[in-house]
Protein 1
Amino acid sequence: MRSEGFLVAERALAQHSEELAVRPPEPGELLAALTAAAPRLEQALASELQMLLGEDRPTVTCGKVEKLAAQKLHKIIDQVAVNVRLDDAAGGQAMASLDFASALVLTDQLFGGTGNVPATMPERLPAAADLTLTRFAASLGCALASALERPDPLVPGLRSDVLGKIIPAREPQQLFMLRCEVSQDGRKGWELLLVIRQDHAVRLLAEARAPSARKATPGDRRRPDAAPFGSMPMPLTAVLSEITMPVSRISALKAGDTIPLAMSGQVPLRLSGIEIARGQVGQSDGSMALRLTRIAWKEKDQNHDG
């Protein structure tokens, strides 16, 4: 039997678009995803606060994620409070809100206190609180990125004491609110409210919700400032002085002893015990600083070229 030939399609076969096929998540799914992220936020925020405050690791407890309307939110948050918008590179946003008492407690703790606040709340926060809130917002942006599995930290944006400038009372969208309490032994506790609009929750949870739909990008290992390593925090140690002492002397140390230190003109900067640079100790903006004079890998490159 002789074949009549191959069948030929009149037009190209249809291809489904994954972006069009994926339905938007329901509010219940977003609520479940935010609830699952809450324990991660507790750990990430506790770590960020420990680095910010320089004390023992605090305890962060997140309550139940609530769905509410904007009008109800305006009844919960004080008429005058510290409200900060945090922006994600993909267009998602979250809002953090602290009442004046919590802002003052955090400020006092950042400057070495236990969290004392005046009996009468001021009409405006002091300049020290402004500096505190700027640093706290940056730390919170890192914690949220870790909890929501975002590739980059959320960046502090608009800040206002008036809630309506960030979330209007007539906002038509559903809101999700998470109440976080921060406590620490010997220190006064304080509270933080996190609020996310429904459409922004979709953007912030997009990668965490559907990891299989992500396109794997291994990143350029020749560029440490690029993904996936660029945003990875690494601890650096500036060694101001090093001394040697016999074990017998070390075992006899007690409070009140004086140990003489000899400081070199060139202070080594180390990463995981390996010296990567050297610099001179000085001051910048009223704080101790290190002005780098030598970079280890640049010297290696010059020796290699020669």
Protein 2
Amino acid sequence: MQIQNLLLIAPPILLALTFHEFAHAYVADRLGDDTAKQSGRLSLNPLRHLDPLGTIMIFLVHFGWAKPVPVNPYRLKNPKKDMLWISAAGPLANMALALGSGLLLRILFATGEIPDRTSFMSLLIYVVFMSLQINLALAIFNILPIAPLDGSKILAGLLPDRFGKMFYFMDRYGPFILLGLIIFGSATGVSVLGGIIWPFVKFFSSIFAGI
């Protein structure tokens, strides 16, 4: 990846990760658990949320993560239902940012101007387009029902308690399954995760931005 492109996509990545984790912390605090707030995670400062390895992985293999927001379910009134909403808050925040990016792209395209590749307008369109793509990819990636992704906790909140053994298995082996899929895709060029995620990214890009 060229240095220029790296510098251009860094702000959308930082924004996407920061709002994702802030949303988790905000909803947890609103539902009665201030653990994240006491840990300094109820913040829009990217440095509070970045995981060094997870950030590097985003640039290298286009999948990554931030530091998980700490949540104490015993401080929630309805742990099962509240954990569902806390988990869903991150992907929903990314979808909101993606929608905002898509609407901004529509406005930029509506000017009718065909920008020069080196112009400020061209760079702005590229950054906003990457914000759209990154936020969609992050939202869809995180709702996959594989621990420790948000989707596993969302699914746990939706299914009856009798499926507890299944979630115990996923909590234990999910990270290895996820890492294996990422390594397999990087080594073979056949990305299972990408095959799942990118069709949805294209679908929502067409809805939000008309592209």
